[in-house]
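DM from R.C. (forwarded with permission)

"hey, sorry to bug you on a friday — could you get me a structure for this? deadline for the figure draft is monday and I only need the backbone to look sensible"
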Amino acid sequence: MKSTKYSRFCRRIFSKIFERFNISETSKTRLLERADISMVYKEYYSMVIMNIIIGFIGTFAATLILYTLFPHPITSLLLLFVTSIIPIVIGLYYLGMPSSKAKARGKNIDRYLPYAANFINTMSVAGISPAEIFETLSNVELYGEIQKEAKKITTEINMMGIDTITALKNAILISPSIKFKEFIQGMIGVIQSGSELGPYFDRCVEKFMENDLVVRKRSLESLAVMAESFVVTVIAFPLFLVIIISIMGMTSGGISFEFLFILAFLILPMAYFGFYVMMKSGMGESV
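My reply, with the result:
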């Protein structure tokens, strides 16, 4: 998410409100940097306030028109309920977005870190400096969010004239991945001690690859359990249930059509959706 004319307009309107509160702007801005949201603290949260206000006005106007056309106690309750819930949902969504995106970026960095570390190790063996390594890494799209972290380091070195050590320290402050922070911190320690980076990268690659293998084996085991549960609960069980219901129908005079309707169009779709949510929530991911 990047700064836009709309977000800057919101900042101009609500900037004075934030000046009245003693809030740590640095920590909030760093959270936005970890989430890769290219806005300062006042701009982002001004946009959040504006979205809440617009959401309230829009839902209130829509439900008020509905109540005017169809005056009824139900529409009046709908007017109160919708105009209360929608702004709260909008506020919770935007307030939780930075932490959620930062967490997702951290997982992505951890997932690709073993392979990026191997890439860095290969270039280090060739005698390439850390600044040139990250510049090359910033042009490789295979390593997900690590590419963005490398771009930030490269931008500070090439465009802002910051030395490599300071750029790496700044990367530690804004990185959402603990593993990546430890990896960069180790690099800084090796550079400042005057030692060679090659042995350090070798140890990191070996450690990351071993951990990645363990995590992937664990992920495969969880996927196997989930697949077995899926087959049993939403494939085998409904088939056996239909057979049992058919037999009971022949002996006891039949089964209600409403029950079959609920099973086919409510229970089973909810079960499928439940497994889909579990997969999307990260249970089947390797990190």
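R.C.: lifesaver. The chain has ten helices and no strands.
me: no worries. The CA atoms of residues 217 and 225 lie 13 Å apart.
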